[in-house]
What we know:
Number of helices: 4
CATH superfamily: Gcn5-related N-acetyltransferase (GNAT)
Number of domains: 1
Strand order of the largest sheet: 1-2-3-4-5-7-6
Order of helices and strands: EHHEEEHEHEE
CATH topology: Aminopeptidase
Shape: globular
Radius of gyration: 15 Å
Strand content: 35-45%
CATH architecture: 3-Layer(aba) Sandwich
Largest sheet: 7 strands, mixed
CATH class: Alpha Beta
Amino acid sequence: MVEAAIRRLGVADLSRLVALEHEQPHPWSIGQLEVALAAADCCVLGAEHEDALVGHAILMRLPFEAELQAVLVASAMRRHGLGVQLLEAVRVQARRWDSERLLLEVRAGNAAAIALYRRCGFDEDGRRRGYYPPLGPVSGGGDAGAKREDAILMSRRP
């Protein structure tokens, strides 16, 4: 297990956050990340290890709940417990907000993420059928014959 320092990120962390996002095929845009970092009802948590940003989680405050918008661990740092550490920090933030539930949605085909969420106490609440477009090249929007993917809705008490 790798121990990371988890802290709330600010606008000064934008370039490192953008670089981390670009490790995935469909990254959040710079504009989306700027909004998340500046919004009063949003918390962007970063995981740092050896002076590098190796993971992040984006949490949105709702009237009675908190919703995990995104969580990402750098590919070279996966399977070292960083996802669990980030989700624990998310849970702590949701409690600070007095949220009644912590919500998330995940692609039905993302077995690793689903296993992580279950390990961290999330239960499946339902599905959104055909919610996600097929994964594929950014410019092409995926294989024309590929089917849309379900979103699994999950939650837990903070």
